[in-house]
Write a structure and sequence with these properties.
It contains twelve helices and eight strands. The longest helix has about 40 residues.
Length: about 350
């Protein structure tokens, strides 16, 4: 009877204690979240319940599995202990990543809620994202190293590897030159404030918004929902346009090719009417001038302003569409025309002379 009750008490008690401690921790997080609704940390820490329970269960089993007195466990006690140690290390790394993510996300949420500068919020978001990725990478590397060191054979190999660490470091540095370059470029972008998540950029003639920045690559979402993935080192070694630098407000232009008889003064009044009815115009500035002329047309430029890159695109499209429609309906003569002339009349061909040969 003892052979049956002992394993049930040890294993069942470990599982029951794990669930009890996990439930108590979750209850404490819920009460703390309800008491401090302005602090999202407690609600985010509730995501750590599952890795916490795995850590507790692995630790309890690691310390009590040999007391079950089961023949199978006694015969393979070394392998079971090794397996539980690996699970404990992996679960601890998982818990550490979840806790660090909760702390970083909570700090960013509180900062974004109280900040008024959108550009600074995007900069902080980029920095905390890359910091979280670095922390995750470090935790994973340390966890893998700790798991490997639990094997006795790996300890001997580790001693030999330390003797040649200098040579291996040089070889690895040369082999991973591109990867390391992108890694340092990602840190330079994060803390150098060159480009941020949410910035509107033009890269290789493509206009889009920075959607994701990692330690090695950057993703730009174009206006037609395509994703352009580029190495972060590109942005530290090549010129690119960042429309979000220096504030989100933008100035845009719309060009018209018109006839010399176009009513410029009436077009200025029509531009003011179009912008007055546009929700995307910010009211800062508007002008309409003739910027160039050719023997057949004139070039009219309308200048408009908006609060950000998306709004300036909308304003330009509205002005272009409504102005052309108004000219077509009210002043059709102002649209460019192709001057033509009738072809000259052709003279009749001369009649052939009669031949004198017989």
């Amino acid at each position: 009877m003892e052979d049956v009750l002992r394993p049930l008490i040890v294993l069942g008690g470990s599982v029951a204690l794990t669930f009890a401690l996990g439930w108590a921790a979750d209850l404490a997080m819920r009460r703390a979240d309800a008491a401090r609704p302005d602090t999202p940390l407690w609600g985010l820490l509730r995501r750590c319940r599952i890795p916490l329970q795995v850590v507790l269960l692995a630790a309890l089993l690691r310390g009590t599995f040999d007391r079950t007195k089961l023949a199978v466990i006694d015969a393979h006690s070394s392998a079971v202990g090794q397996l539980l140690s690996l699970v404990l290390i992996a679960a601890t790394a998982w818990l550490a990543i979840r806790i660090s993510a909760a702390i970083v996300e909570s700090s960013y949420s509180r900062y974004a809620a109280g900040a008024r500068d959108a550009a600074r919020v995007r900069r902080v978001r980029t920095q905390v994202t890359l910091i979280q990725r670095v922390v995750t990478a470090i935790v994973i590397v340390v966890a893998v190293a700790a798991m490997l060191l639990t094997f006795p054979a790996m300890r001997t190999v580790g001693t030999s590897m330390l003797a040649s660490a200098g040579v291996l470091g040089i070889v690895a540095g040369v082999a991973a030159q591109s990867t390391l370059g992108n890694l340092f470029a990602g840190l330079q972008i994060a803390f150098g404030d060159m480009v941020r998540i949410g910035d509107t950029v033009v890269v290789d003639g493509e206009w889009g918004t920075v959607e994701e920045i990692t330690l090695t690559y950057l993703t730009v979402r174009t206006w037609d929902e395509r994703r352009i993935t580029m190495p972060v080192s590109y942005f530290t070694s090549n010129p690119f346009e960042n429309w979000s630098r220096g504030g989100a407000q933008m100035t845009g232009t719309v060009f018209f090719q018109l006839d010399h008889s176009a009513p410029i003064e009436e077009m200025r009044e029509k531009l003011a009417e179009i912008l007055k009815n546009s929700d995307a115009w910010d009211g800062r500035d508007q002008t309409l001038v003739v910027t160039d002329t050719t023997p057949t047309t004139i070039v009219v430029r309308a200048l408009v302003t908006a609060r950000d890159a998306d709004a300036i695109w909308t304003v330009r499209c509205e002005v272009r569409e409504q102005m052309i429609t108004w000219l077509r309906d009210v002043h059709p003569y102002a649209l460019p025309r192709i001057a033509t002339a009738p072809a000259p009349a052709l003279e009749p061909a001369p009649e052939p002379r009669p031949s004198l040969e017989k």
